[in-house]
Amino acid sequence: MASGMAWVHLRLCRSCGHVGCCDNSPGRHATAHYFATAHPIIEGYDPPEGWGWCYVDEEFVVLPDQTPRRGPIPRFCDGL
């Protein structure tokens, strides 16, 4: 986001809260964050998806306790 690159979906690191773009986005920042930090689990954050991904086990995980949001991400608001 800060780099100005286009992104498809956002992923949230469940260890530290870092927000990075998904692997379908040019920067692949969420995966790069994992390799830089070894933080193992990301959450599908934009739009809220209710799942996570474990890089260590390379499998989806159910996240019943999704990270709370202060409001919708502007890209998904009507009229923006």
Summarize the structure.
11% of the residues lie in helices and 26% in strands. The chain contains one helix and five strands.
Give me the strand/helix succession: EEHEEE
The biggest beta sheet reads: 5 strands, antiparallel
Per DSSP, the total helix count is: 1
CATH fold-type name of one domain: Herpes Virus-1
Mean of residue pLDDT?
A: 80
Count of individual beta strands = 5
For the record, the CATH class of one domain is Alpha Beta
Strand content: 25-35%
Anisotropy-based shape: globular
Please give the order of strands in the largest beta sheet: 2-1-3-4-5
Spans of at least 5 consecutive residues with low confidence: 76-80
**CATH 2nd-level architecture of one domain:** 2-Layer Sandwich
Residues in helix, %? 10-25%
Compute the CA-based radius of gyration.
Answer: 12 Å
The class by helix and strand makeup works out as alpha+beta
Quaternary organisation of the protein chains:
single chain
Model description:
Helix content is 11%, strand content 26%. By secondary structure, the protein is an alpha+beta fold. The chain has a domain at 7-50: 2-Layer Sandwich (Herpes Virus-1), CATH 3.30.40.10. Strands 2-1-3-4-5 form a five-stranded antiparallel β-sheet, covered by helices on one side. The longest helix is centred in the middle third of the chain and has 9 residues, at 29-37. It is globular, with a radius of gyration of 12 Å. The model is unreliable at 76-80 (pLDDT under 50).
